[in-house]
Amino acid sequence: MERKLRRPKTTEDALTFIHRVAEHNGWVVNPDNEFVADLAEGLAVNYNRYGYYLCPCRDGDGSRDLDRDIICPCDYNIPDQLEYGHCFCALFFSPQFAAREEEPGQIPERRPHS
Cβ neighbours of residue 64 under 8 Å, at least 6 residues apart? Predict the structure, then answer.
């Protein structure tokens, strides 16, 4: 079976993805544009390496089945936003957290086998 070649993702593609995900879910993207650009670059690198937007803040296995829980937006995003106001890598904020204009802090890893 011939594998379909994908067009490599750029940082701009990842930024578009980030903003669409945030808009779709009612989240706020971290207002630090430089920080977000760095994460977008990591997402693009991971997409081009693995074929999916693997969270750039975590180590994946390179297997979609094993990494499913940390494909952006990860399975831990909503619990992290509910408890801390932002996700693990601080890419997405809850609207309430964003309105307080607080700096995101470090939060504990929820992934069981990290």
Answer: 50, 51, 52, 71
Element (H, E) at 99: helix 95-100
CA distance 13 to 84: 28
pLDDT (tens digit, 9 = 90+) per residue, 36-92? 999 999 999 999 999 999 999 998 888 999 999 999 999 999 999 999 999 999 999
User: Beta strand 92-93 with 28-29: parallel, antiparallel or unpaired?
Assistant: antiparallel
* pTM assigned to the model: 0.91
**Domain covering 11-100: architecture:** Alpha-Beta Complex (3.90)
